[in-house]
Write a structure and sequence with these properties.
Elements: E1 2-7, H1 11-21, E2 26-31, H2 34-43, E3 48-52, H3 60-70, E4 75-80, H4 86-95, E5 98-101, H5 106-118
Parallel strand pairs: 1-2, 1-3, 3-4, 4-5
């Protein structure tokens, strides 16, 4: 079974993405903090991770770098409704699969996720 990890501190976003992405062939895990995301990735690598840039416990770009070190095969899609500075933008461009601004269209994100998890990977 393929796994998608969603990391965000907004409950409604977590619930909406889980509902949109969960299938018989895809398990969706949701967590609200960077630490929980790193623990999840370390225990069981994911094919895809949706990661918010602004988390309550740590900077999402730092979480991104750590995910890349722990699980290089995990594709990370960064997302935010906030403004990102140049250093964040550079880190995202260098380490993330892509960036999507919030709010986003759930149907488009669902199609994107399906395309990414069908690519070769863990």
């Amino acid at each position: 079974m393929k796994k998608i990890l969603i990391v965000d501190d907004e409950q409604l976003l977590l619930q909406g993405l889980r509902k949109a992405l969960q299938t018989d062939a895809v398990e969706v895990i949701t967590v609200e903090t960077g630490e929980a995301a790193l623990a999840e990735i370390a225990s069981s690598p994911c094919r895809l991770c949706f990661l918010d840039v602004f988390l309550p416990d740590m900077d999402g770009t730092e979480v991104l770098k750590k995910i890349r070190a722990i699980s290089p095969g995990t594709k990370v899609i960064m997302m935010t409704a906030g403004i990102i500075n140049n250093a964040m933008k550079e880190t995202i461009e260098k380490n993330a699969h892509m960036f999507i601004p919030k709010p986003f269209d759930l149907l488009q994100v669902k199609m994107l996720a399906q395309r990414v998890i069908e690519e070769p990977g863990p």
